[in-house]
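In this supplementary section we document a worked example of the pipeline. Step one takes a protein sequence of length 435 as its only input; no multiple sequence alignment statistics are reported here. Step two produces a three-dimensional model, which step three serialises into structure tokens for compact storage. The input and output of this example are shown verbatim.
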Amino acid sequence: GDFEQFKEYLPPLGLARIRLHAGWAKLEPKPGVWNWEWLDRQVNWLIENGMEPLLETSYGNPAYPDAGGASLSDGIPHGEAALAAWDNYVEQLAKHYPQVKNWACWNEPSNCKDNTPEELADNNIRTARIIKKHIPDAKIGMLVISWPDLKYTKACFEIFKQHDALKLFHWIVMHDYSPNPDAYYKISAENWAAYVRKEAPHLRIWNGESGATSDPHFSAPISSLRWNSELTQAKWNARRLIGDLGHDFDSLVFTMYDPCYDFPERYCRHVPKYWVRTRPDRFMKRMGLVKCNDRLEVTKVKSAYYTVQNLATLFDATIEPAKLRAKVMSGEEDDRLVIYTFRQKDTQIPLVAFWNASKHPVNDNAVERTTLSFGGFSFEEPVWIDLVTGAIYRVPAQMIIRNQRARQGGMQLEGIPFYDAPVVVTERKLVMKEN
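The serialised model returned by step three reads:
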């Protein structure tokens, strides 16, 4: 992608942290020859415009023997000479960017069967120690695995503990691209997170790469699904981001722009020969919030961009998960609904997010109704917010049933609408400024 083409769309999103790949092979194309200009432009622009860059140290460099491949799913550097070259690369990177406080290690190493937990743990430890030597207050993400793989994580943790190295890290990072964005919590993420929090409670859990495609393009399982559209992309991203926040995970939406791959035969192994491309040597991966062509130009803003903007506006840094009693009314048990509760830190105003999570997002907006019961809290002027569109509606008085006899108050919202994308009930004053 071309950062210059889409950078102006970043500040209006309201996101605080932007992930960049550093790219050893691009920074040092020949041993001892360094090219910083392309990355300097991105890092400096983000900082000048009030955003925090996060640099991921991936990947290897074919300019050095055994120093790993330059792309996703390649092997990690191994051998004394290659590791010395890797150490020098990380050293140069940290010395060059002391202003960068957020870092992450090798991206999705578990994709490559040759990358053993022992090699990954060694790579993470040596990388973190070098960064910390030059930037003592750096926050570093470890593992960066392609899904919450408990077996792989446990094997790595044994090595981290042997070297007393868990304290080097601020985040533990995993990724997920399940077709139903809500399914992975029960399948893998919750058990994985419970293990991490038990073994290393200081680590922040981060879903560090996750997103949906705006049309089918057959490059990976999630992007090969026929129902992919700009509408389902917006719904999927919203469900994933709110679900992560509700589990107290940091979250990242992938990606800002539609990346263009120069080597489709390598990156797009799922692509059938009959799939038509505008150029045989280029392949567009339609995961961006803005749409790009194969000349890297932005051609439109997608619905998902505005959905992420809506979400960042409401769920800003003042909002945190809260254990509040919110449920479907007894007698109307509905396993399709997921409910997450939050509070605004200063005002303690509650927010209740809910949606139909029974399957992947679909290409219609069929609305259903249910009765939600809130125990121990209530709303004075409740509003109903659609995060996909940003529309805000006053909840009609006839839907509100207040429980005056409850010990600490409470209320029910009868016939409240929901569909397969997040909606939020909260106080009007949190989102509507008085005239």
